[in-house]
Amino acid sequence: MSTTFTVDEPRAFSALDQEDDEGFLYTRWGNPTVRQLETKLAAMEGAEDCRAYASGMAAISALLLSRLSAGDRIVASDVLYPGTAELVRHTLPRMGIEVATVDTSDLNKVEAALQEPAKMAWIETPANPIMRLTDIAGVATLAHDAGAELAVDSTFATPVGTRPIELGADYVVHSLTKYIGGHGDALGGAVLANTDRLEALQLEATVHYGGVLSPFNAWLIMRGAATLPIRMAAHEAGALAVAEALQNHDAVTRVIYPGLESHPQHDLARTQMDNFSGMLTFGVDGGQAVAERMMKELQVVHYAVSLGHHRSLIYWMPTADLMESTYHLEGQQLDAYHSYAGDGVFRLSVGLEDPEDIIKDLTSVL
Ligand SMILES: *Cc1c(COP(=O)(O)O)cnc(C)c1O
Fold first, then answer.
1. 3 within some domain
2. Do 193 and 263 reside in the same domain of the chain?
3. Of 45, 66, 275, 324, which is most buried by a Cβ count within 10 Å?
4. How far is the CA of 60 from the centre of ligand 1 (A)?
5. Are 61 and 83 in contact, with CB atoms under 8 Å apart?
6. The sheet that has 252-256: what strands, in order across it?
């Protein structure tokens, strides 16, 4: 937990003069406990290296703000985690960065958007909250042909399911708060990439923006990460059982889970995901009223945001509200969102409870 470390020879005071092999000096620059987590995450992702941050959003803003400058252009998925979607749409343009948002599940649209020069392409797969997938290898080829780097938010998939670096991505980001930590008790985030890219990130984002991970959280997240493979197997099995039960329920209009054959991109899910994860969405008629019943009556599933925890978590995501606050989609893009989500979806993170208990709990309020 130490914030500072004794030095045995004179050291430069500026991060600009920092050498790689000088050892630890101050925890904002680097810390042995955090470093241990970074080393493990890099091994899990098949990445050269990793930098950990205080939250998923700290990792995402570190990467976007340090990599992009005024006059640059980014092509980003039109459906992303709301924090990222708002940062991309509201903050980047204010810094003079041009933003093009496209439905990245359609490679033709990605190719068209990359006709104009871009520094970076940004995707999230599966994408919050509609569980839409993007073909990572396909977008990597298009991005590289256009001279752009590809960043993938792989939080929903986890390295157990998908390893984007192997598929050609240049950066992978995670909210460690979710599956990797896995217990709902520590915020954290990570950026994974090759050593050169992370050295640039280290100086500007880690040392100067300073949104670093606490060593205490690094320790909690490492303890959680040790069980990630067996937790993901259990999350997947539970999610499949719950998805099938909901699909057969009269009150449910639609279930979207990559592991179901009914997912519009099930074939891509089978090639790109070794584990379908524990995230699914479903629709019902009169979602708002059902949400209110859930808040009062659920016994096993918690009505709360976040995901990837041992506990099942559910939240109502109404389409109109999200469009107004976050996505601002129109025309074809709005139609494409509607085709997944209708007027809204319940986003369900299937936890590690007995799937029969989860099904019984949910069907009691449907
Ligand atoms: C939660 C989440 C984030 C943000 O992570 P925090 O740790 O909450 O800052 C980013 N992307 C995805 C896909 C997420 O689910």
1. no
2. no
3. 45
4. 9
5. no
6. 252-256, 279-284, 344-349, 313-318, 302-303
Residue 20 has a pLDDT of 65
For residue 171, what are the domain limits? 15-225
Q: Give per-residue pLDDT as tens, 112-167.
A: 999 999 999 999 999 999 999 999 999 999 999 999 999 999 999 999 999 999 99
Give the span between the Cα atoms of 171 and 173, in whole angstroms: 7
Q: Which residue has the tokens 């958007």?
A: 113
Please name the amino acid found at residue 128.
N
User: Residue 58 domain-assigned?
Assistant: yes
Q: How far is the CA of 57 from the centre of ligand 1 (A)?
A: 6
CA distance 265 to 55: 30
Kindly state the tokens that stand for 249: 């329920």
User: CA-CA distance, 242 to 233, in Å (whole number)?
Assistant: 14
Which residue puts its alpha carbon closest to atom 12 of ligand 1? Answer: 81
Host H or E run for residue 295: helix 287-297
Distance 127 CA to ligand 1 centre (A): 11
What helix, strand, coil percent values describe the chain, rounded to 5? 45, 20, 40
Ligand 1 atom closest to residue 177's alpha carbon, by position in its atom list: 7
Split at pLDDT 50, 70, 90, the class of 45 is: very high
Per-residue pLDDT tens over the stretch 16-31: 776 766 789 999 999 9
Look at residue 10 and tell me if it is in a domain.
no
Choose the final residue of a domain: 164, 193, 225: 225
**CATH number of the domain encompassing residue 112:** 3.40.640.10
Q: Is the CB of 180 under 6 A from ligand 1?
A: no
Cis amide leading into 126 (omega within 30): yes
Domain CATH number, residue 279: 3.90.1150.10
297 and 318 fall within a common domain: yes
Q: Is 235 helix (H, G, I), strand (E, B) or coil?
A: helix
How many domains does the chain fold into?
2
- Specify the amino acid at residue 286: G
